[in-house]
Amino acid sequence: MNRFQSDQWSLGQGLTPSITSSFTLSLEKGHSKEISKGIIYSAKCGLGWRFTVAATNADTELGDKSSGNVIITLQKTQFEFSFDPHIINNTDLKNLTISTTVERMTPLLSDYNPSKAISLPTPKWPRMSLGRFNSEENYTGRVTVTFQVDLPTTFNLSLPVGLPPSRIRQVLGDSLMGHDLIDTEFILFTRRTRKHQPAKPRAIFGNSHLLRGFSSYLDILLDGNGYKESTEVDLGSNSFDDIPIDDYSYLSDSDLDSDDEDEKTSPVTTPAQTPSPIPTPIQTPLDPAPMPSQTPPPDLAPPRTPPSERTNLRPDKEPSNNTHLESGKNSATSWAPPHVGKAGRRIVVNDTAFKTWKSFMFYLYTGKLEFRPLGQSRWKEVHSASPGIPKCSPKSMFRLADKIDLPELQRLALDAIRRSLTKENILDELFSTFTSMYPKVQEIEIEFLTANLTADLFQQFKKKLKLVVAGDYPHSFDILSDLIEKMCNGGVHILPSPKGKMKKGRVLRPPQ
Predict the structure, then answer these.
(1) Residues 198, 329: one domain?
(2) Fewer CB atoms inside 10 A, N or C side of the chain?
(3) Compositional bias of type Pro residues: which residue ranges (predicted)?
(4) Residue of 327, 78, 20, 51 whose CA lies nearest to 194
(5) Neighbours of 409 (CB within 10 A)
(6) Residue 364: burial class (beta carbons within 10 Å; 0-12, 13-18, 19+)
């Protein structure tokens, strides 16, 4: 039993994590070389389990020997596949569901279950049969067997993400022949003006070959295909005058820096003064500008700024973004790296903040991701637990992951939102416009509130209800409906009145 490809890690409906392993078996005139060799174990798969196969001869004969008729032998092999938990048998992983898919084989219906539930740990004989199958008569060639192991939704599994080494080698190899490492720039807004308009567009650079294959949404943007968001330009040009500002539908995005926030926390500065404390972007081979210690060949490098003029372009600092846009128009003074001067594709991402997209691309490249706690502003970010990894809001990333259909990234963001919930912020988060748009977020926040409902928090909840009735939260119907249903199921009973009407019974389990 040979591995057909590397394990495939994915999230299915309901964010159920699954790991799929595929194998091939060789047949010659219906017979397998593994016949009568006993139990054969695969290499370790997934989190450490294995699969086994045992092959036996299952030939059948057609004809009657006693009557002298010609005997026809139909050669075939019977395979029995089993699951061996191996090193995970005594772990916290309790329940698995395994689906078996085969080609050119017929299952024996007496013991075949296409989706088998398994409970761990198993008894002394750990292997569990997944079914027996007869091969196609007299077939010569390879057959494929696929096992999909579904893990519990409660199992906190981080799926492997990042660039395959082969793709990185190909891009670096192409660069040796003169191909550019940077061929795409994404334009995104960094700020929100006092008039609630997006402003200060800025570029993030990338390599289209490295970014393909993660999301069909991203692939469509990279291909262009006539979309107005994608055009051919000179990369690194600092002309953003034609960037539309009317398509940004999430102006409460916490990854957009606010002019009002700056006014309260920091004086307005110019680019020549002290730079703002935005975390430094990590320098990678894909960065448009080289590190100051590196000297690229003159014919390949953009013109370098003289050292005396590079005050705000040091690797440990970024230029200030404190020049405000009151009108919401896109200023040509927005910071950009030195003009690269090579043609490439410009993609305008109208509905996502610069910080969110930067973290997203860093995640695609490296598999690394770091979130800010809910409500934390950029001015509080002095030290990072993981230097070099850009931070973003988990809500902004959840919204992006939902839009581009990346379930694993969505799960990571949802977990970060869950970890950031506190008794101090739960009501503001629960009744936010963001929460009203996503049932999964509503679910975890309602669960947190009902599990942590103290007397003080209940009084704050009643004040929030007054604002709901006053019309301050017109988007909160679904949230209130689900919350009331959960509270009723947990201790509030609806009792019929003697007159046939319904009235609310007493609270059997008041907040403590």
Answers:
(1) yes
(2) C
(3) 274-306
(4) 327
(5) 24
(6) buried
